[in-house]
């Protein structure tokens, strides 16, 4: 048994002081505790921050500030989220089970680690996320669930969060507190692609803590949006592919477009090429297909997941067609 200390922080300052070397911040624990139990991760102490930053409030400019310790279920049920940012509520309800949503926190959801089977198998497989330089058995192994964008010869794992895909589409900003003070990072820049250091998954520095997620004032493209998740079974399964997308139309043309993809990269993948291709175009299935194919030109499938290219295309076209009211 590994000795482990536990303390509950009473405020931000207390949390930063208590998280000494080797200790970890603890929110709902729905991912971290499993990782510790299975010896995927190690810690000599836990600093419970689940009672800090647990409110949701409107900002002065009409946006929304969501505390990092707010439970996923509370975010999904919040009336402002449901009315102004419905894509976020739908993404949260598509993730995990009701029991886990009642425990999981916003900050923990953002920081959850990949569900790659090789990452979890500490006894028999190599994984550069667990041990830098060990190798990646997923590349030549079973990789049906792995990345088609942004991977490297070091790692092909995907980020599992549904919530983060919606946050990427909504231009959310992560607020961080650490020994050097507060700073803010766009969600799209928060997670790192693997490159040469796949164990460095985010831009968080030692001792830093996520304190809030800020949503900007809602635009039409955010309120007229949808989240769709494609998975092997309808309940409690991670995405093969997911799509968070929004459209704004005027005079028969697309004026705003937002597309974020899940299940395809080590971070929520913002499809900026497809978005740019849509602006000014007619909202037709053919136009949607042409736009997403521009994004998919950069896809690099593995031996078992080339089907994801077609699945992304068909899912994006279906979502955008439904949003536009066009007929296939």
Automatic annotation (TrEMBL):
Domain spans labelled FAD-binding PCMH-type: 1-220
Entries under InterPro entries matching the protein: CO_DH_flav_C (IPR005107), CO_DH_flav_C_dom_sf (IPR036683), Diverse_Substr_Oxidored (IPR051312), FAD-bd_PCMH (IPR016166), FAD-bd_PCMH-like_sf (IPR036318), FAD-bd_PCMH_sub1 (IPR016167), FAD-bd_PCMH_sub2 (IPR016169), Mopterin_DH_FAD-bd (IPR002346)
GO molecular function, one term: oxidoreductase activity
Highest taxon listed in the record's lineage: Bacteria
Keywords: FAD, Flavoprotein
SMART domains: CO_deh_flav_C
PROSITE patterns reported in the protein's UniProt record: FAD_PCMH
Protein name: FAD-binding molybdopterin dehydrogenase
